[in-house]
Design goal:
The protein is α/β, with parallel strands linked by helices. The chain is 50% helix and 8% strand. The protein contains 27 helices and eight strands. Helix 4 packs parallel to helix 18, helix 16 packs across helix 17 and helix 16 runs parallel beside helix 18. The radius of gyration is 26 Å and the shape is globular.
Length: 627
Amino acid sequence: MNTNKLQSFAAEARTSLMKAVRARIDAALEPNSLAQSDSPRAYRELTEEILRNGGGEQGRAKTAERHAYRWFNRIIALRYMDANEFTGVHVVSGEELDNPNALPAVLSAAKRGEFEDEVFGGVGTKSKVLPTIQALLDGGKPSNDPQGDAYGLLLRSYCDYWHRFLPFMFDDAGAADEILMPADLLAKDSVLRKAVEVMTVADCVGESDEGNVEIIGWLYQFYISERKDQVMAGFKKSKKAGADEIPAATQLFTPDWIVRYLVQNTVGRLWTQNHPESQLHNTWEYYIDPVGEDAGKILKIDSPEDLTVCDPACGSGHMLAYAFDLLYSIYDEAGYSANEIPGLILEHNLFGMEIDERAANLAAFALTMKARGKYRRFFRKGRQVQPNVQRITPEYFADDEVTELNDLYHVTFDTDTWNTYQNADTYGSLIQPPAELVSLLPLAGAVEHSETEGGQAQLSLISDQLRDRANLVLTQTRYLSRQYAAVVANPPYMGSGNMGNELKKFVTDHYKDGKVDLFAAFMLRNLQLIQPNALLGMITMQSWMFLSSFEGLRKSLLANNAIETMAHLGSGAFDSIGGEVVSTTAFTIRSYRINTTGIYIRLVEGKTETEKIQLFEKALISMKRED
């Protein structure tokens, strides 16, 4: 995979799409614009969204950025699915998949009068779109760009179709989508054409021919790189990070070999400990054979469904995507049906949390593509299972709404309890839900409308909306209050000096021993998220191992837990960011204090990812020879 080409494409796509969408916004807001007369509902929704985003220039800019990313998501998702033959007719790719100059196959088919019944059949809006497309292509409807306008309608129709299966990726953008689609998508140098060129079939399909979702993660990191540079430059000018800055400042795509080391030595370790007859560990290239274990102090895992895995800051889902692969092999070895395994993994095993809406959407997409790659009928009715990826979303209730919620749930919670997630876009999965909210989990989604004497449901519109918002709060509480068999994570890195006052106070109040850096707070939080005798795997900055400011963290960590393995990486572990920007260490911890010495592998002498991998593999071979 040529990551340099992906980086160039993603950066250019962001600039191009933001410019194109902004042009659409400005044109729509001109006095007496066509948008106002031809698409009044779309115009109204656009103006309302701009106001929600702050109004004026700020509102226009934020709206342009959000819709630009939405179109980037859609285009790369459709290209990925085209390349893997998951779409019936290629939507953004030509009939020759790797030909960037070919017309999208759906447009070629439309020009021949061919339309997929699943997409254009039925009644309603879809039945009205089809005649318009046909009229544009046969000259019956005047247009300066009939082919481009027809393709725009085709593309939107396919986005609506895929919304049924992938609502997180093809979200319902509302009527505003009518006037915010980027122009000239069929032009030679358009984002769509370049996506076809850069996202080659080989890179999208991968060596296994079951899909390579890693390409999606790289594209996300590269897309936000310019924004990350802006935030980092702000830090140098003493600006602090708030909710708008945290996602860009802290996203870092984890190298694949480190992901494998962490997952194999947590999820894989739990399975092999409980099922010593398993031979799967012989296929795990970074698995470290345990030493000196007390068999009575391991977490009991009877079946594959018991292997619950959480990434509390999952980004685009790289950890969870590899965990899917490892879990699939476990289910397969245990004798489960190949048709059932993908759905079982998504339903029972994998859980992700993320504050960035865009990253959460990509993580859910990645896991769904994993499932579809293993089971070709995954999207059939009754077969699909939605992934457990939850964006931790801010929610605030006014005093009168709190009163209504208390009546609805027959409780007397105070305002602070209901507003636990008021700043969720800043605190994310560091939030520890109060016991009061946890007590309501059995009622999530089950609260019925109150009834009048006549037996008719009587609930105001605001109460109906309140119930949905309350269910969101309870859903987030379910993710954050449960404990998992394994947690694997590359947490956000941010020193306290760059934290905004709000975040800094929260971390100090709730994670005193980890207040120096966000990653340290996540180390403490992640230990709360695992069951007794369960395993935690993380890659973090190495500073907690040495500096006096982390002494409290070290004492707390070692008093109640045991480090089982560690790969001390030092600088240069992330080739994607170059130089010696971060010095890191990867490790696995058991949530039980045992008097055994862990296995530590020093890789600091390696100057690049490749050198570190070679040193690691050499160390593993040496250990096996000693055994």
